[in-house]
Amino acid sequence: MQRTTQAALETTGTQPIAEASQPGRLISLDVFRGLTVMAMILVNNPGDWGHIYPPLEHAEWNGCTPTDLIFPFFLFIVGVSLVYALDGVKQRGGPQGTVLLRVLRRAAVLFGLGLLLSLYPKFDFSTVRIMGVLQRIALVFLGCGFIFLKTSWRTQVWLIIGFLVGYAVLMQLVPVPGFGAANLEPTTNLGAWLDRTLFTEAHLWKQSRTWDPEGLLGTLPALGTGLLGVLTAQWLRRRDQEPAAKVAWLFVAAGGLIVLGLCWSPWFPINKALWSSSYVLFCGGLAMAGLAALYWICDVQGYRAWTRPALVYGVNAILVFCLSALLSRTFGLFQLALPGGKTGGLKEWLYEWGIAPHFQDPRNASLVGAITLIVIWYFILSWMYKKGVVLKV
Prior knowledge:
Elements: E1 2-5, H1 6-9, H2 27-44, H3 70-92, H4 97-119, H5 133-150, H6 153-173, H7 190-199, H8 219-236, H9 243-264, H10 277-300, H11 308-314, H12 317-331, E2 336-337, E3 343-344, H13 346-354, H14 362-387, E4 389-392
Antiparallel strand pairs: 1-4, 2-3
Helix pairs in contact: 2-3, 2-10, 2-11, 2-12, 2-14, 3-5, 3-8, 3-10, 4-5, 5-8, 6-8, 8-10, 9-10, 11-14
Organism: Hymenobacter negativus
Protein name: DUF1624 domain-containing protein
Domain Heparan-alpha-glucosaminide N-acetyltransferase catalytic: 25-241
């Protein structure tokens, strides 16, 4: 990572990958990103994994909870951000070799950070998980970056259709070697077979070792999620439409995507682990509606007094994602005595002695544990925001 400042991110000079080619920043995008990262910390860091309110858990398989919206929202934001970073380069025309290399470099760094998180703290390369959250973000960033620079918006629409329909055909019609007919079960679907074949079971998601929720084949529909963000950003950047018209048509498009996703779900169920095509449309519609609402509130109407907590998270999203995971695993290295004669990491010790005894309902205690972490990170990120410190990949 490199240390930079907010002003440096907004320059249009020698760093095309980081330039903001529009007049000013899209405040709503930073707010949307920040809210998404705050939600991620909330669901990833409960005080007690055994006591969680249902909306803060992933769907067991088919279906969609609020927690299942977080990752697709982030990929949608990646697509929007790409356009605001690269549109000036595309509009100027000319050679794009330098910016394409920057896109490739950033994707490689993101993928490497994902591997680092998988390796830490044991650094056992024989069982390291190859795919993961940052790895999928890296692949979507790379694919959407190249597609945006090299194609028109009409081509991007057709690519979304191709990715989603093609993925549905692969998952629902192509027989799975060694298992027979196509199916959508966790361990026997085509994507799970492909991951086991390419990576071997030792390098898959450690909770199963038979399939991976961020598997390779799922990158195809995930690209569709990113491209929905790309299309949304191109619409927002149009100069021949009034803001009210932009927002209105975004809500129309969002509603259409949500309906299409729900209509498709009886045949290809909404499923985060599979990143099903119906899931892409449903979550993409919700993300589009969310950004449209924030764009109207923050950028058009100028109501920004409430946005600071989200902004301080939004401008350092990758930093807080990585450090929260690293610190959680570091705390696990310190085994301490817990109530009831059990042992646990430093985080569990702080929770069991400092938070849990004050609540009758353990779900409330678990929720407060997660909120406490959000508050702690807020003060750290707020100080960085005040100093103008932004860490970018």
